[in-house]
Amino acid sequence: MSNLYARDGISTVQPPLSQAVGYIVVVLLGVIIALVMMLITKLLKQTTGEDNKKTEMFMTANRTVRTGLTASAVISSWLWSTSLLGSSFVGYNYGVAGPFWFAAGCSPMIVFFALLGISCKRKIPEAHTSLEVVRIRYGRTAQVVFMILCLVNNIFACANMLLGAAAVISAVTGIHIIAATFLLPVGVTIYTFVGGIKATFLTDYFHTAFILIIACYFSVKAFSIDQIGSVGHLFDLLQAAAQRHPVAGNQDGTYLTMTSKGGILFGILHTCSNFGLVIMDTSYFIKAFSASPAAVVPGYTIGGIAYFAIPWGLGTIMSSVAIGLENAPNFPTFPRRMTTSEVSNGLVLPYAAITIAGKGGAAAVLLITFMAVTSTLSAQVIAVSSILSFDVYREYFKKSATDRDLIRSSHFGVIFFAVFSAGFSTMLHYVGIDLGWTLYMLGVVTCPGIFPMVFTILWRRQSKAAAILSPILGLATGLAVWLGTAAHWGGEVSVATTGEILPCMYGTVASCFSPIVYSVLITLVRPQNFDWASFKKERLALEKLEDDLTTAHHDHPPSLNHSVAENSLEDGGARSAAFDAQELKRWGRIAAFWSVATFLGHWVLWPLPMYGSHYVFGKKFYIAWVVVAIIWLWGTMLVGIFYPLFDGGIQQISQIYRALKERRTVTNGTPQGQEKGDASASPSTPSAASVTETVQADEAKDEGKL
């Protein structure tokens, strides 16, 4: 951890909420959300034919998720508890530079993934995981290497989330931190077990909406209390705080500058780490595979750019509140400053929330922390379960695995990883590792596979030997640099020295970029000339995908609405265009443009001139900085909440309503099937169960015709 200030001492802050409140949120609310998701999953099956007993539906949502829900899921994928807590944590340490670099280390990577996602759609449309791509191109040895790297990525990502979330929940409610660590995955396990990836998308949406509403509430509430009153007065408070305890490495010791040595070091470290978290996280590939081809690029681009405002806006405001009001009587730690341990455990956000909103603020932080960790944990759990089912069970144990076999193995994976991640996080806690340590060192273990994986998808020349050896050599290089620099600057290898920012930054950069050199040099010995068409020769899906993807019968309640045929023709014609080769190439070019533009805008053209100019914010500039962040944050809320509704959400809700209404009419004895082609027609009045059976029979009939 970056010990910018010597703040020793033991926390004496009493939890503002009772343990009962904590258990209600962590256990009862988690179970309620799980039950609601189970009900929605059952409802979707009965009214739209989305059957989670089918592997393609369970793992990829039949690859028909639209742009709005994809964008919301992308935002949610990065709404980690780490993002909410970590952005305020680095803002407290480095000033305004911290939250900005936190955000700049996320958005470009998310947008870049649109390029990989659309490339996979074009080259290997039937894939479920990135490891299937590796196996087909390079064989089983390479697949095992990347499988280990992906699993390590998922394990440390979950530990990062659980450590921060459990520490905050314990601090605001008094629940034992280990109890929180093991109880948080319970609800996640239940609804992921039942609903699969579609449940993940839906819970992503609801959790994202809730978190964004509270984040926007904090952005207004912070300026409604008398101690702050306005953005201008918050500027004055930050200036006064810099006089009391100047920031080492910042221009003039102020919090109000982008010229921050610690800030830019964190920016480099965080950008590389997040590149690894995106590329080596199977859940991102699953969500890309689940999106319709026309939704991948706009969904990831809109989601990535919209996400930028969350760590930037929320982190800037709440860290400024903590810094400015730390010497106020109503600050939780008054009359002392926050200890290094409290800061590193992610308590800047909850303490700032308590200061501006009392117990209500504590309750709000408890809820958004719970929502964030359960939503992102769900994606991690489904990612690991997909690896265990498709890349382990199907590949090495039962080649002829059926839907039932794969779903069973997926269920086992869900339960196993939820328990394992909680146990691993507990182990880290007891050896003295916290949110700050994992936030800094994460890239050392997540980055070695980045460029070998990118080359696997985009560069036909990378050889099998390069794909296998370069990530292994990169990991060894990163670990050696990390531990070596920790010993050099810290005098020993310990939790404290390995958690400092400089060793972590050097180790992360070495892990990230050394595999490029290894891959290119090894490839030059005997380059490959891979034929991309080879990807399509192997059958990966258990169902025929081409027709499912170019028609819209999964988007409408089958056989329950006489207008389905017309809608299917209209939607099918629109979607078939998305699969045209030239259209996919066009989306690829668009993705490449936005990847470059986002990186240049968020990482180069905006922050670097401000760093090099040694500019210190004036009051008007700081006001503009915060106001733009707030406007962007509110815009993100509108995108996250309303875009999915207007992009098919309202339509599907109305279809579900009509289907339920017709089922109710059938149950009450009213004749159906007056129109030609209505598969619900029956000589006698069927029950609700028979309608469901008819739906499934009609789907089977349609698949037979196709």
From TrEMBL:
Keyword Manganese: no
GO cellular component annotations of the record: plasma membrane
Membrane-traversing stretches: 20-44, 64-80, 100-118, 144-169, 175-194, 201-220, 377-393, 414-433, 439-459, 466-485, 505-525, 590-609, 621-646
Residue ranges of coiled coil: none
Cellular location(s): Membrane
Alphabetized PROSITE patterns for the sequence: NA_SOLUT_SYMP_3 (PS50283)
GO molecular function: spermidine transmembrane transporter activity; urea transmembrane transporter activity
Topology of the protein relative to the lipid bilayer: Multi-pass membrane protein
CDD domains, sorted: SLC5sbd_DUR3
Pfam families linked: SSF
Keywords, in A-Z order: Membrane, Transmembrane, Transmembrane helix, Transport
Disordered: annotated span: 667-706
Name of the molecule in the record: Urea active transporter
Source lineage: Eukaryota, Fungi, Dikarya, Ascomycota, Pezizomycotina
